[in-house]
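note to self — DONT lose this again. spent like an hour looking for the file last time. sequence + predicted structure for the chain T wanted, 180 res
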Amino acid sequence: FDGADANLELVNTLQNLGRPHLAYNEATGELYLVKGPTGEVAIYNLGSDMLTAFQPIEMDGEDITETYSAVVTDDGRLLVGSNNQDKLYEVDPTTGTASMPVDVPSVDGGDIIQTNDGDIWVVSRSNNRLYNITDDVDYQFSSLNQMYGAAVLDNGFIVIADGGDLLHEVDPNLLDANVD
């Protein structure tokens, strides 16, 4: 990875967003902003430069907070991970209504990704684990120093950023459960 050729341009300045986690919906051109500590969601439309009001994320009257990861799936669903509930939720970004909770051993920071084969993965920072939610299998990486984020490459490999300032490339098809 060589960022030497990268050009950054500040196109819009939104303020008071509360350090949101971002998930982009390619089909609609909308950017979903999920506030971590408070568990709120808003929609930013890049085309119209409009930001909706933040809505609390809740399910059956219970506030869903500590939402430190989010992804838009290939079929357009917004998935949000909650650290204090250790669950992954499908969230309606317009209303904040959460549904379809899935238990995850740990949703501490990290990230949520969808691999090219459609599987949903949760990256947990505190215990260096990748959880394949689709296949209900988890993988531990004891040699990594806190996994902070992940992305999927065109070739299907997962790139993981760790707290030691390194990027690690992983072939999800070659992982063995609970081994390094």
